[in-house]
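Example S7 (structure tokens).
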């Protein structure tokens, strides 16, 4: 049996976090003593270890975060077999996302190797959006964020040529793999250096970036989440029957 402070120390969280996890049903209801103090069991310790392990990596992508929370919630209901199944699915999804992130870098490498298409044809923003199966607002947003600079005609209208179209295709691939705007902007600034390591650039914020989010280091974040999922499976495998 453990008191709040004791179990919090064992797991490495603040006592308030333990109380919040009970409110959110991430752990089983905690019985109170006659004096009102909470008393935690080994079941609670296990549930907190699962939550702590899965939340170790601050993945912010909605679906991934949602899957992690579902595992923790299911474990909190003491449905350990189902929680283990969800963890296996979660790990599979993370590994798929990581492969997707790597594949997107191959698109960039291919773009750098190939000679640009020679054509005098130009497109409007709407036409480009239709060709790439994205919204005009997405294209506008990428321009506003400095991912691409589009030349203008004498009348002031933007004219997207084949070069811009190819660059937008690369940006679309990177965004669909969940790379952040900051990461892509960093890549485009450094892409002309000899033999650039695309994956490293996308996942290594520079000293000039004042605010760094998880998606600015997507590859590292996914690897951390994969490690957390594997550690969680190990917890389930090591779990003994609770009395």
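Recovered sequence:
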């Amino acid at each position: 049996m453990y008191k709040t402070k004791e179990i919090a120390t064992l797991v490495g969280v603040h006592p308030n976090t333990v109380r919040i996890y009970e409110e959110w049903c991430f752990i089983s209801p905690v019985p109170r003593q006659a004096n009102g103090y909470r008393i935690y069991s080994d079941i609670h310790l296990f549930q907190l270890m699962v939550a702590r392990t899965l939340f170790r990596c601050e993945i912010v992508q909605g679906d991934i975060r949602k899957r992690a929370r579902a595992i923790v919630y299911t474990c909190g209901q003491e449905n350990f077999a189902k929680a283990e199944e969800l963890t296996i699915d979660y790990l599979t999804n993370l590994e798929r996302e990581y492969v997707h992130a790597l594949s997107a870098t191959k698109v960039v490498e291919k773009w750098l190797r190939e000679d640009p298409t020679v054509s005098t044809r130009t497109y409007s923003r709407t036409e480009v959006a239709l060709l790439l199966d994205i919204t005009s607002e997405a294209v506008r947003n990428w321009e506003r964020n400095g991912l691409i600079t589009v030349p203008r005609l004498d009348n002031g209208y933007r004219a997207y040529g084949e070069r811009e179209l190819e660059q937008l295709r690369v940006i679309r691939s990177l965004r669909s793999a969940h790379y952040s705007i900051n990461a892509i902007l960093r890549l485009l600034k450094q892409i002309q250096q000899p033999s650039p390591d695309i994956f490293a650039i996308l996942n290594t914020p520079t000293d000039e970036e004042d605010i760094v989010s998880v998606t600015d280091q997507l590859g590292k974040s996914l690897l951390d989440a994969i490690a957390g999922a594997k550690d969680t499976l190990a917890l389930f495998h090591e779990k003994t029957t609770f009395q």
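Notes on this example. The mean pLDDT is 86.
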